[in-house]
Batch of 2 targets.
Target 1
Amino acid sequence: MIPIVSMTLLLVHIILNKIGQVLRREIKVMCSDNVNSILKSLNTDELKLFTWDKILSELKLHAPVLTNILLSCTTKTKAVYKNRPELLDL
């Protein structure tokens, strides 16, 4: 029988490995030629129109897990969700 601590560590390792796979897939999509991202733009006119809302929209569309992780890491308290319900719409 496997001790509970070893089992827990194994599960954590498996979960982190799967999350890593998902994140690599999402980043690969964002970097692909099929995605027309403002992050890859070299056009000065497009860069003049840069907004963080555009970045957030792109990330929500092409990298929802990464977006959710980033928003979770940068949200101070659950009280923020009351003032910003759009954060829950991932």
Target 2
Amino acid sequence: MPAPDPHGLYIEEYDDGGFSIICELWWHGNRANRIRRMRSIADNIRWGGWLCAHCRKPIPIFRRSDALYCRERCRKAAARLRRHERAKRHRYARGRVMEF
């Protein structure tokens, strides 16, 4: 599946904190998908910004609209952290406390 068009959306931010999203629409292809992506990104920004769940930096516009991480590195680091926390909880639950 191809990635979203990186030049299809433009976000214009204002000094008062508002923003507008400009969307390129073509007569070929599925226009509804691009409009749906634009609305989803607008909702992400409106609900406190579209920030990476790991490093808290803004997510680039060329990422999918449901992206939680700004890049692959953050996604993998978050997964490692979750695995480490889960293993630590499991060791404490079994009564054995072992540290790395």
